[in-house]
Amino acid sequence: MISAIRHTGLVVADLERALHFWCDALGFRVVRQMEESGPHIDAMMGLHDVRVTTAKLAAPDGNLIELLQFHSHPDRPQWDGAPYSTGFTHIALTVDDLDALVGKLAPLGVTFPAPPQYSPDGGVKVIYAKGPEGVLLELVEVLKR
User: Fold this and answer.
1) Could you give the number of structural domains in the chain?
2) pLDDT digits (tens, 9 = 90+) for 20-34
3) CB distance 93 to 139 below 8 Å
4) Which of 22, 47, 57, 140 has its CA 20 to 30 Å from the CA of residue 63?
5) Residue 110 within a domain
6) Number of alpha helices (DSSP H) and beta strands (DSSP E) in the chain
7) CA dist 8 → 51, 86, 91, 122 (Å)
8) Cα atoms in the 13 Å half-sphere on the side-chain side of 46
């Protein structure tokens, strides 16, 4: 039925701040940024007079995240869900050096509910992080290959 996952969309309150976080702190790169509006996007979303800026970001492996800042239909400034909330809860990212990344993210206001944990089989070290807009990230360092 499907051939691939195209991207994951993430609505943000402040696109510039989000780009700084996703690109400068995490290492994604912008592959396309554009202003979108018009009948096609209104019809697709079932809304009227949509104005949104979108930015497609590529991870080093080519997977894409799309950041969307709605200028016409703003919502709450952050997501208030928890790891056990119904629906999409987090984005898992494989990282090279978990401790170094935690040290880089903490001064940016990213919070961690617990210190890094090791999987029972010792294959990975993992931590949950709450980033901009309250988005939950699962950061995973693979220890065994």
Assistant:
1) 2
2) 999 999 999 999 999
3) yes
4) 47
5) yes
6) 3, 8
7) 19, 17, 9, 29
8) 0
pLDDT category, 18, cuts 50, 70, 90?
A: very high
Q: Does 45 share its domain with 97?
A: no
Q: What is the H or E stretch that residue 60 is in?
A: none
Return mean pLDDT, the chain: 93
* 65 shares its domain with 96: no
Judgement on whether residues 29 and 58 belong to the same structural domain of the protein? yes
Rg of the Cα trace of the chain?
17
d(CA 33, CA 54): 6
The answer to whether the beta carbons of residues 112 and 106 sit under 8 Å apart is yes
* Residues whose CB is less than 8 angstroms from the CB of residue 29 and which lie 6 or more positions away in sequence, other chains included: 23, 57, 58
For residue 101, the enclosing domain spans 90-142
* pLDDT of the residue at 56: 97
- Answer yes or no: are the C-beta atoms of 93 and 140 closer than 8 Å: yes
- Using alpha carbons, select from 27, 41, 43 the residue that is nearest to residue 97: 27
The whole-angstrom separation of Cα 9 and Cα 131 is: 16
